[in-house]
Design a protein that fits this description.
single chain, alpha+beta, 4-stranded antiparallel beta sheet, globular
Length: 280
C-alpha cells in the first residue's frame, strides 16, 4: 500500500530561471550587463533562502514551546540547518529576536490579506502591540510594491504540516505508525541535494496535527536517525497558479520587504503551491 501511494505522489511544484552564459568579448558593456544579471539571479535565490530560513525558525519557536534553542530541540535544528546552508549570523539572530517577540504575551495576532497583479493572493500574519502601527506599515509596503488589501483567503486553506528527517529504510515503518493514529493525512518523500538528507512530509487537517505528531513522537524518539524538522500550520494555495518571471520577482520583493518588518511573523502567497499541501 505504501509503495503504490508513494509512486503516485505528485511532483513538488518548483520553478527555475536560466540565464545565458555566453560571452561577447567585443562588448565590455554587454559583458558587464550579463554579470549584473547573473548576480541579480544569485541575490534573488539568497533572498528566497533567507526568507524560508526565517519562517522555519519562527515556526519552530512557535510550535516547539520556546524561543530559546537550548530549550527547544526543533528550534535548535532549524538554527543548525540555517548555519549549514550558509545563512549569515545576523539573519539568524534577527529571526531569533523576532521569534522571541512572537512568543511574548505583549502582543496580539493579526492577519491581513492582499492581492497583487490582480490574481496573486498574499496572507500576512503579524504579532503586534500596536495594531495601528502595524496596519500602517503593511499598507505602505503594499502600496510601494503595487499591491492592495483584498480578501484572498478563499484561495487558500490551512494545513497541518510535519517534515521529518528519516533513513529511507525506515519510511514504511513511520508510515505504518502514522496510519495507526487514525488521522487522515497526505504524504510525500523529500530529499535535499545539498545536505544529502532525506525523509518524509505529512500534511493533515490543522485539528489533527497534534494527534498525528503525538502518535509519531515515541517512534521518532526511539529512532536515532529520525528527527522532526518542521511542525506548523500553513496557509496553502488550493490551486497551482501560473505567473511570469517578472511577476514572481516582484512578489518575492514584496515578501522580502514585509518579512523585514519586526511585527510580521509569516507571509504566504498563492504562488507557493505544493501538491502535498494543496491536495484536496
Amino acid at each position: 500500500m505504501l509503495r503504490s501511494r508513494l509512486s503516485t505522489a505528485l511532483p513538488r511544484a518548483s520553478y527555475t530561471r536560466s540565464f545565458s552564459r555566453s560571452s561577447t568579448p567585443f562588448s565590455g558593456h554587454n559583458k558587464w550587463s550579463k554579470i549584473k544579471q547573473r548576480k541579480g539571479a544569485e541575490d534573488a535565490k539568497k533572498s528566497i533562502l533567507y526568507g524560508k530560513v526565517a519562517r522555519d525558525i519562527l515556526a519552530a519557536a512557535r510550535n516547539g514551546g520556546s524561543p530559546i534553542p537550548e530549550e527547544n530541540s526543533m528550534l535548535a535544528t532549524a538554527v543548525r540547518r540555517a548555519k549549514d546552508a550558509g545563512v549569515p549570523k545576523e539573519n539568524i539572530e534577527n529571526a531569533l529576536v523576532k521569534a522571541s517577540k512572537s512568543k511574548s504575551d505583549n502582543g496580539q495576532a493579526v492577519t491581513y490579506e492582499a492581492m497583487m497583479h490582480g490574481a496573486v493572493g498574499i496572507i500576512i500574519e503579524c504579532r503586534t502591540n500596536n495594531v495601528n502601527r502595524t496596519l500602517s506599515n503593511v499598507r505602505e509596503m503594499l502600496n510601494r510594491h503595487g499591491a492592495r488589501q483584498a480578501p484572498v483567503k478563499f484561495m487558500f486553506r490551512q494545513r497541518g504540516y510535519l517534515k521529518i528527517a528519516l533513513n529511507p529504510n525506515d519510511i514504511e515503518d513511520l508510515f505504518n505508525t502514522a496510519e495507526s493514529t487514525q488521522c487522515a493525512f497526505d504524504f510525500d518523500e523529500w530529499e535535499d541535494d545539498a545536505s544529502g538528507s532525506r525523509g518524509i512530509e505529512l500534511a493533515c487537517s490543522p485539528d489533527e496535527l497534534l494527534k498525528l505528531e503525538d502518535g509519531l513522537r515515541q517512534y521518532i524518539q526511539q529512532n536515532a536517525n529520525a528527527e522532526i524538522l518542521v511542525r506548523e500550520v500553513r496557509w496553502a494555495p488550493l490551486e497551482e497558479q501560473g505567473s511570469t518571471d517578472d511577476e514572481k520577482d516582484s512578489v518575492s520583493n514584496l515578501v522580502e520587504a514585509l518579512e523585514e518588518d519586526e511585527d510580521v511573523t509569516c507571509v504566504s502567497t498563492s504562488l507557493e503551491y505544493s501538491p502535498l499541501l494543496g491536495n484536496a
